[in-house]
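To close the chapter, one final illustration. This time we ask the reader to focus less on the individual chains and more on the assembly as a whole: which components sit near each other, and how the overall shape emerges from the parts.
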Amino acid sequence: MAIKLYGILRSPPALRAMAALFEKDLDFEFVPVDFATREQKTPQFLALNPFGEVPVFEDGDFKLFESRAITKYVAEAYADKGTDMVLKDPEKLAIQTMWMEVEGQKFDPTSSKLGWELYFKQMFGLTDEAVVARAGDKGGQKLEDVLDVYEQRLTESKYLGGDSFTLADLHHLPYLHILIGMKVKSLFDARPHVNAWASDILSRPAWVKVVSMSPK
Amino acid sequence: MAIKLYGILRSPPALRAMAALFEKDLDFEFVPVDFATREQKTPQFLALNPFGEVPVFEDGDFKLFESRAITKYVAEAYADKGTDMVLKDPEKLAIQTMWMEVEGQKFDPTSSKLGWELYFKQMFGLTDEAVVARAGDKGGQKLEDVLDVYEQRLTESKYLGGDSFTLADLHHLPYLHILIGMKVKSLFDARPHVNAWASDILSRPAWVKVVSMSPK
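The assembled structure is written out below.
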């Protein structure tokens, strides 16, 4: 197989890239990276990604890291396959790009912090409730503020980037999946348009396939 | 004039968008937003950007927020004007996009934290030296780690995104400008390729023009 994705199944960025590959109906080999032995910091792996992180994407000789760069490449290079996730009209594409920036700059920093506390650290009983409180569960502002803007946007547009499902939605999937399974679910329940959007995109077959591969 | 940029001259994201407009030789009106009276949180301004932040870009009836979405739109919509900042070859563009993601996800979080402590809070004597130490001045890891990867990349490639100056470089300008004027300059001095790259892009006429408009 020509396409390989190096990752671990607990890595939200790796799952983001995997979701894009499934949306494009591409065959690929998932290559597990052994974080237990710090394989991601070996010279061999650092040659693939100098930051020593997953995912890494290979398409023949062509290599990429950074999950959102991988999804964009896949969406554009395989435009004729699977789901079309990049809008054609230049102004509509600019609006899609704007919401992709919002995900990377506003949603991701708050949701990854919450995900880290509530999901990953919780496995070891290390959740810091003060961080959770600040990040939005109650009294906090930041994820709530982002979701308030999303609620307004989703009254005007079926999807975040425009009328159809695009990368602007797909990039949210890994942390949406994590947060909606946690006690911050109430933040979503309180916002009907956000909740309907999240249910819609989380039930896409490509994402369901990603989840079915993930450790329980 | 058809193009307007709403911002303040102390906002790194506003200066990022302005640099792109100057690189493209576009005429535009800079519309100052009065942060002292919290104009950015008024209903009128929230209609332009629901996050209540600058910059906001207007091109006739078309509106955008998020600085990196603005630079991309400007670079693509005005492809025939000024500096070409988007590579044409799809694989080269994917590599450029990857380094744009690195800026947004790795360089910006560390450099904006340092810039906030050393530049903005310093104006009021509020710099938190513990944050500075953790973020990379001495003993810290994060900005240093990013710059180590940049040093390696810039031994292989004249610019971060490829052989020519692109948005992958331009997006760094506001925080490069701030950090190189601060005590963390030593982090740049210690890395000759990063230092040469920074000097090169900071001396571009478009950026010099941005700096000449900024408050001293």
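The interface with chain A takes residues 50-51, 62, 64-66, 68-69, 72-73, 76-77, 90-91, 94-95, 97-98, 100-102, 104-106, 108-109, 145, 149, 152-153 of chain B (CB under 8 Å). Chain B has a mean pLDDT of 92. With these observations in hand, you are ready for the problems at the end of the chapter.
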